[in-house]
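4.2 Preliminary Data

To establish feasibility before requesting continued support, the project team ran the inverse folding procedure on a target of 602 residues. The structure was first converted into the token representation described in Section 3, and no sequence information of any kind was made available to the design step. The complete token record follows.
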């Protein structure tokens, strides 16, 4: 069991900042020293700002010492200058190479070759793009995309001209901007003023922007501080800070103390009685079982992938189990409220049949109403509804990160939101994404194909099966409640007809049963209304429709991942579309349920 899950609360995150560097290989002799000084100043300022953010938010970070990493292709020129400066300042160095080390080394000669070997020996990790020399400039373009995908921001040493071919600096800059990654532009002459290009400055969607249209700010101390703060700090809104603090203070809930919703599933035949378990497994154990098959795959079992996946598994285990707990708590409270409201009416009506017990029935009715009010007050005070929505959103945000990271060139789309991480759950997921670390290398297109199959198998197939089963389960529950509720209303109509006939024809037996008929004529619609209330508040029909539509979209994506031949960009885009599809489903679900708070039926 990991340290975090063995502890009493969900894991805090470590502050991490990864800076990519890209730029021209051939720089003038006069520009080398000014560019080096500029990179020194920028990295020093970024490190200081990252430490300040971490120190200011020790309530959510596990340490005030951020992990600072520079990501470089180690090419001559800008890449090697940035790598050398980063090492001098104590940053970790990771490398993204367009070919294998042996093949890429052929790009260098003389001093550049010596620098390449020396810097490569000091890297924490190197990742080679699964490309061959025959692919030419496309390999360099792909390595630039990987650099942007794995970086929080990019330092680009660029002359401002158009790219001289695929993989050129201008192309990498445009790609990063479209991905929502901030770009610090250092003019290649070493003299002109640096600037920052980032859609986030004006809260714009980055997808259609390029280097010409992206918002631009001067690269100075205040702007860098704002940039690092917005990248690393949790959302400042008071309600978001409070929700994050609540989550980090959560404890394990191993007993299911609200059986109302599971019993409703059992009574409607939606779930077998043997499937109900009053105690859940410890969160670490449940997460380990859920992830065991995925962790056994070749890419996920690589040594360099283990530490990051351990952290992600810990966090997912907590968020998923807590979401399940609050889902059952909220839904149990919902079923209780409607059932209690119906029961209070039935108790009042029963007084017609047992006048001598009227005092006790009245006391019972008041007790039921008090329990209903108390249940609603407790649910409101404890935020069962919000915690369920937040924790389920977080769990499903975290789930695809494991596969996206292993692909290397894929991103979860955090930076595509024009308003940034406005929700604490997005911020927490993005912080975990940062601390996953670099992926295991993919040596060939065959390994890419194998990984694509693993993603389809462990991510999409399981989600397709879940959504199909959930669609069937929600449809069955909705249909059962509708059928029983309708039958109760028809029963009330039948009682009314029988009573009318009996009173009209003066049938004695009907008159003698008048009180019972009155109770039935009022009680049956009351129970039916409670069932329709549960059905409407639970929104089971819409949930079934959403699950069915999501399953259909995921099946198309699984087909894309299993198509052959497949290269890294194709696999990465399909995995990103999977994450986006899940996010769309989450957003629709959140919109549907966010106003369905626990309330007194009235």
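Position-by-position output of the design step:
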């Amino acid at each position: 069991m990991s340290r975090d899950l063995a502890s009493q609360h969900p894991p805090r995150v470590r502050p991490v900042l990864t800076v990519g560097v890209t730029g021209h290989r051939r720089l003038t002799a006069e520009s080398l020293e000014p560019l080096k000084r500029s990179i020194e100043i920028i990295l020093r300022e970024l490190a200081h700002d990252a430490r300040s953010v971490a120190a200011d938010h020790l309530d959510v970070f596990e340490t005030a010492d951020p992990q600072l990493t520079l990501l470089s292709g180690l090419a001559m020129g800008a890449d090697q200058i940035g790598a050398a400066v980063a090492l001098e300042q104590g940053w970790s160095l990771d490398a993204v190479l367009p070919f294998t080390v042996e093949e890429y080394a052929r790009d260098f000669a003389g001093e550049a070759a010596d620098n390449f070997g020396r810097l490569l020996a000091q890297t924490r990790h190197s990742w080679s793009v699964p490309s061959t020399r025959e692919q030419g400039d496309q390999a360099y373009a792909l390595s630039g995309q990987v650099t942007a995908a794995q970086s929080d921001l990019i330092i680009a040493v660029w002359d401002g001209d158009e790219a001289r071919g695929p993989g050129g600096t201008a192309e990498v800059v445009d790609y990063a901007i479209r991905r929502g990654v901030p770009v610090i532009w250092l003019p290649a002459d070493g003299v002109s003023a640096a600037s920052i290009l980032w859609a986030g400055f004006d809260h714009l969607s980055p997808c259609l922007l390029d280097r010409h249209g992206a918002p631009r700010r001067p690269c100075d101390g205040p702007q860098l501080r704002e940039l690092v703060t917005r990248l690393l700090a949790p959302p400042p809104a008071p309600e978001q800070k409070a929700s994050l603090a609540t989550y980090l203070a959560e404890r394990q809930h191993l007993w299911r103390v609200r059986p109302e919703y599971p019993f409703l599933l059992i009574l409607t035949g939606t779930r077998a009685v043997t499937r109900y378990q009053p105690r859940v497994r410890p969160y670490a154990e449940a997460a380990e079982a859920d992830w065991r098959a995925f962790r056994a795959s070749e890419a996920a079992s690589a040594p360099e992938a283990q530490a990051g996946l351990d952290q992600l598994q810990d966090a997912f285990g907590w968020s998923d189990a807590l979401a399940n707990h609050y889902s059952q708590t909220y839904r149990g409270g919902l079923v209780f409220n409607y059932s209690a409201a119906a029961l209070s009416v039935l108790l009042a009506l029963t007084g017609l049949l047992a006048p001598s017990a009227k005092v006790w029935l009245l006391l019972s009715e008041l007790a039921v109403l008090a329990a209903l009010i108390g249940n609603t007050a407790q649910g409101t005070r404890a935020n069962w509804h919000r915690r369920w929505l937040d924790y389920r959103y977080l769990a499903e945000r975290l789930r695809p990160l494991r596969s996206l990271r292993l692909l290397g060139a894929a991103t979860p789309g955090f930076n595509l939101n024009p308003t940034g991480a406005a929700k604490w759950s997005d911020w927490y997921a993005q912080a975990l994404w940062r601390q996953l670390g670099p992926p295991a290398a993919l040596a060939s297109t065959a390994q890419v194909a194998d990984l694509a199959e693993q993603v389809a198998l462990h991510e999409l197939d399981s989600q397709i099966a879940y959504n199909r089963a959930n669609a069937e389960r929600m449809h069955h529950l909705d249909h059962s409640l509708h059928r029983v509720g309708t039958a109760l209303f028809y029963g009330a109509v039948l009682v009314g007809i029988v009573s009318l006939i009996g009173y009209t024809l003066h049938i004695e037996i009907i008159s003698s049963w008048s009180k019972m008929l009155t109770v039935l004529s009022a009680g049956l619609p009351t129970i039916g209304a409670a069932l329709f209330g549960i059905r409407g508040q639970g929104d089971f029909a819409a949930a079934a429709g959403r699950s069915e539509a999501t399953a259909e979209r995921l099946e198309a994506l699984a087909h894309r991942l299993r198509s052959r031949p497949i290269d890294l960009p194709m696999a990465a885009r399909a995995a990103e579309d999977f994450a986006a599809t899940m996010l769309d489903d989450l957003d629709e679900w959140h919109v549907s349920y966010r106003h369905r708070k626990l309330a007194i039926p009235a």
